[in-house]
Amino acid sequence: MTEARLRETLCELAASLFARGLTHGSTGNISARTADGGLLVSPTGTSFGRLDPARLARFDAAGRQTGGDRPTKEMPLHRAFYDTRDGAGAVVHLHSCHSVALSALPVADPGDFLPPLTPYAVMQLGRVRLLPYFRPGDPAMGDAVRELGGRHAAVMLANHGPVVSGRSVEAACDAIEELEATARLALMLHGLPARGLTPAQVAELLAARGGAG
């Protein structure tokens, strides 16, 4: 994919997420790896509904900004995924309502935030790690991701929002939508005697995926 097309794709997908209410106002940020090893990053304080391909922050392979507007203040979070996840081609962070709501409830296992209600979240995300609350823009968020050693493709920032990495910007957006849909299901079933996938079924899906993260 050419860089021009990657810029357009990133903005188109962000606008779609915004139009369907998966993020709001000027919340959320998105980035993608360019063919030369650099990064395109959404600017700080911008709405997913109005991203301009020409104004995306551009970084070279050495991490130097070479163009565009000032990037999101969550850059340490994005860089942590690129530095620890082999093959990461994009990172998406949303403030999606249902996943944030689920993160505000008690969780039995922080290492496995999403209940295994359907196979799709397991297939696309593996096990989602719940991280504690951090102030928005706190570099400690990136440190917390680095401490995971690349073992998780997705994390949930408590009372804040999900962050997902993928091999492409399309894959990352699809996966974070699946995370939000599963969180919505979990809230719909909260307090009910729901029947989820069995441990054996989850293990089979994780094995087919190639690991838990």
Automatic annotation (TrEMBL):
Signal sequence bounds: none
SUPFAM superfamilies reported for this sequence: AraD/HMP-PK domain-like
Molecular-function GO terms, alphabetical: aldehyde-lyase activity; metal ion binding
First-tier enzyme category under EC: lyase
Reaction equation(s) it catalyzes: 3-dehydro-4-O-phospho-L-erythronate + H(+) = dihydroxyacetone phosphate + CO2; 3-dehydro-4-O-phospho-D-erythronate + H(+) = dihydroxyacetone phosphate + CO2
Keyword terms of this UniProt record: Carbohydrate metabolism, Lyase, Metal-binding, Zinc
EC number, as in UniProt: 4.1.1.104
Pfam families given in the database record: Aldolase_II
Class II aldolase/adducin N-terminal domain ranges (all copies): 8-187
Keyword Cell inner membrane: no
Domain of life per record: Bacteria
Single GO cellular component term: cytosol
GO terms for biological process, alphabetical: pentose catabolic process
Named cofactor requirement(s): Zn(2+)
Family: Belongs to the aldolase class II family. AraD/FucA subfamily.
Function as written in the Swiss-Prot or TrEMBL entry: Catalyzes the decarboxylation of 3-oxo-tetronate 4-phosphate to dihydroxyacetone phosphate (DHAP) and CO(2).
PANTHER family according to UniProt: 3-OXO-TETRONATE 4-PHOSPHATE DECARBOXYLASE-RELATED (PTHR22789:SF0), FUCULOSE PHOSPHATE ALDOLASE (PTHR22789)
Name of the protein: 3-oxo-tetronate 4-phosphate decarboxylase
Source organism: Paracoccus solventivorans
